[in-house]
Amino acid sequence: MEILVIGAGIGGLAVARELLATGHQVRVYEQAPAPRTGGKAILMWSNGTAVLHGLGISLDGAGNRIDRIDALTSTGRLRTTQNIAHTNARFGFGTKAIARRDVQERLAEGLPHDLVTYGMTCTGISQDGDRVTTAFEDGSSATGDLLIGADGHHSVVRRHLWGDGAVRPATFGTWQGLSPIDIEITDTHRHYMITGREGACGLMPAGDGRLQWWFDVRWSPADPRPASPLAELRNRFGHWASPVPEVLAAATDDDLEFFGHHWNKVRRVWGEGRVTLVGDAAHTMPPTLGQGANQTLEDVWVLGRELIKEGADVATRLRTYERTRYPQISRVSGMAKRNPANWRIPPMIGRLFPETSQTTMLARFSNRLGVPAPRSYVRAVTE
């Protein structure tokens, strides 16, 4: 089949790689003028690394293995530890913190040099019988047998299918950086999640002496940007226990990026006719579980399995893919929205719930993600 893909991020490149390997003709259109090289580090859980393995992608030599996640109070007290090293022993795939651009570069390796056309902004989609056509801002168009929207949480393809207003702001945003910060955690395989009255901080060693660090704060789209974000972060979080002050002292304004987070209710069927979605275009969620890229890759794996089947027409296979993904992605999305790591419990209320109870709630939410994918799924990608 001739397949059109809108978006050349992790989802777009992964789906192109998957579908080219099964004999389809694929064309990818990206609105950016050139390959994206920005972005900070992401957490590739074992479900994501399993799919990458199935796509022929190794993460050897890049990023940093993460073996455990420690949840701390702002005073430095350990609340709970989540062991994630066991996934490597159980499934054969571990968890890594790795720069987003490194994942994209590895996904792009070996793909046809002319696979992606850059500077192409999708403006509309139409379907006619057994073909689908996308129009672009420059007046050109492309036609294929099906179209996949992999264009992120601002997805033009999703707006065509669902209209405006489906994606809603979350209650918080993140200031983050990926920097060479020479402190003890940078050379470990530990990931810290630190919470207090002022917000939350995450610290994740990402390899090559770099630390992925972030601060979550209350946010709404109407909030003005601070004139000096780093100074505000130092004022807000600088009194927290080590190593937070050391991170803030070593950071620079050039390191900072801000992301206001969003969420949409996952639909049982998110496409129409010969059009479907993958990744954030279908299920935008806050990053509290670190599952955004990983769930995108699961989408790609399931979609690829459906499109190699024979018998049913294209639209039926796309709807089967969406319904197959719905139970898992709906659960993960709901957990990301409700994750207790982002609860801000006022002191008077917090004293009604012992810290051990709060820790137990956090552990239960986290450990529900402890088995990253069904055993049959992980076995299948290694066959």
Entry summary:
The chain has about 375 residues and is an alpha/beta fold.
Walk me through the topology.
Layout: E1 2-6, H1 10-21, E2 25-30, E3 41-44, H2 46-54, E4 64-65, E5 68-73, E6 78-83, H3 86-91, E7 96-99, H4 100-108, E8 116-118, E9 122-128, E10 131-136, E11 141-144, E12 146-149, H5 156-162, E13 168-180, E14 190-196, E15 199-207, E16 210-218, H6 229-237, H7 244-250, E17 257-263, E18 275-277, H8 292-307, H9 314-338, H10 347-350, H11 355-367, H12 375-382
Parallel strand pairs: 1-2, 1-12, 2-8, 5-14, 12-18
Antiparallel strand pairs: 3-7, 4-7, 5-6, 9-10, 10-11, 13-16, 13-17, 14-15, 15-16
Instruction: Estimate the global geometry from the Cα principal axes.
Output: globular
Low-confidence stretches: 341-383
Helix- and strand-based class?
alpha/beta
Strand order of the largest sheet: 6-5-14-15-16-13-17
Number of domain units: 1
Helix content: 25-40%
Rg result: 21 Å
State the main characteristics.
383 residues; 18 strands; disordered C terminus
Describe this structure in words.
The protein is an alpha/beta fold and 383 residues long. It has one domain (2-168, 263-382): FAD/NAD(P)-binding domain, CATH 3.50.50. 33% of the residues lie in helices and 27% in strands. It is built from twelve helices and 18 strands. The chain has helices at 10-21, 46-54, 86-91, 100-108, 156-162, 229-237, 244-250, 292-307, 314-338, 347-350, 355-367, 375-382; strands at 2-6, 25-30, 41-44, 64-65, 68-73, 78-83, 96-99, 116-118, 122-128, 131-136, 141-144, 146-149, 168-180, 190-196, 199-207, 210-218, 257-263, 275-277. The strands form four sheets. A seven-stranded mixed beta sheet has the order 6-5-14-15-16-13-17, sandwiched between helices. Strands 8-2-1-12-18 form a five-stranded parallel beta sheet, sandwiched between helices. A three-stranded antiparallel beta sheet has the order 3-7-4.
